[in-house]
Amino acid sequence: MMKQLITLSIIVLLGAGFLGNSIMNTMAGEMEREAAEKYYTSIEIQRGESLWSISERYRENSGLTTAQYMKELKNMNGLKEDIIHSGQYLTVMYFITDSD
Hints:
alpha+beta, single chain, 100 residues, 18% strand, Membrane-bound Lytic Murein Transglycosylase D, Chain A, 2 domains
């Protein structure tokens, strides 16, 4: 019984060390990513544009997927649906890194 407890303890310690190392490496990789400053501007929607196309254009350097950015865009502008019309104005966020 004691041998099994010692073996289990060693396995748990090795697993925790491996998991902790993996988490630290992941965090270090995120820190290396260049920080982007967030800015806001108002744009006029042009004919043929959609929330998706606007999201694809402005999400660069945000770390968000197009779908995540579009959800944030809808929240920022109080939109309940994905429908927009040319001539409307939207507030968009864009991101600039030091190297831009």
